[in-house]
Description:
five-stranded parallel sheet, 18 strands, single chain, alpha/beta, 46% helix, 457 residues, 19 helices
Amino acid sequence: xxKILIIDDESFICENVQRILSSEGFDVLAASSGQQAxxxxxAEEIDLALLDLNLGTEDGIDVLKSLKEIDPELLVxxxxxxxxxxxxxxxxxxxAFHYMKKPFKADALRLIVxxxxxxxxxxxxxxxxxxxxxxxxxxSPIIGKSEAFNExxxxxxxxxxxxxxxxxxxxSGTGKELVARAIHDLSDRKDASFVAINCASIPxxxxxxxxFGHEKGSFTGAGARKKGLFEEAHHGTIxxxxxxxxxxxxxxxxxxxxxxKSIRRVGAVKDIDIDVRVVAATNRDLMQRxxxxxxxEDLFYRLNVFPIHIPPLRERTADIAALASYxxxxxxxxxGRQFRDVSPEAQRLMAQYAWPGNVRELRNVIERICIMRSxxxxxxxxxxxxxxxxxxxxxxxxxxxxxAVPDGLGLEEAICSIEKSLIEQALQKSGGxxxxxxxxxxxxxxxxxxxxxxYGL
Length: 457
């Protein structure tokens, strides 16, 4: 609910404005002096202020200046009498949004207030997006400015224009579904449905019915015909999250759907043609799953037409400050807090933390801070102990995670020991993703596979 502050030393004006705007669903506060107004703006997040230029002994222009010093983004509508229009114009030069002459009509007040609040909302959205140089659209904008993030943005913008199948890989919490939604939102299919399903959350016996639908009486409990999610996504996009957890039998049926571009409901005898863009995602190494005979190689190549890998947050630390600011602004507004920025020291601590839960963990941390604290600046002491203690620091020489070479080894043996340890650390850093590990080590995937076999990794 938007908060509006009316600043006027005439009580009947305050009461009248409160009555008019409260009926529109706004939370309206009142102040009878400049000092009261400054106290309110310091303590509350005010979306809009209505300021009378004639506050008895106080100069309304001075009050406007002081309010802007407290909150430079505060929108202010000046209320003025007929004799002070020149002063009102001066106030516009100082950053006032608009001015209204007394007496004003209720409808005019409602109109200008709604216009001002819409302007404020748009300004805040622009500020959020500017914090990330290459943000992507969607119900939850994807924010970032690192080179790795910009590469993902470029891939999304390129593939969105096509209808090819996409496979998104990355650790848990990196934002795979948000990227899938961005692909949909930027595509020609944006006006149709985006349907998401977590393949790991539905028992294998029910997943076929969920995806393809069923006919009445096709199994116990099927009391009526039901459309599947592929039909619901016709002309749109279906997002198959955690595709690596799908059982082999279901994989074979999905492969047929991708090949034939048609589905068959459980218990049906006819196929139904579908026009669906498939985006799949996983935090698993599907090549390893293929080697373990738990994922079909032919399905992998059907899904992996256009791969997008989202690096973990620890590999794109340049994005952390922008993401933290975005979440801070969002939760501060939701919880009525006064947070406006993150201190440089808090940013430094967040940048050196490993973020095993990635963007999801960062979001949760900021939400928890906004629940417990009020602002105006996020300080190091607000951060959880694991972040303040530097547990995300890179390992010091000889410390935990350092490469240890056993005594008594010859040069060749020592080199092999170091190489094995480096590969182990790189695999751990990429969450077991062989493709990403090979890229990080700057060696061909086949070479990495050979060395993994050589060292029994």
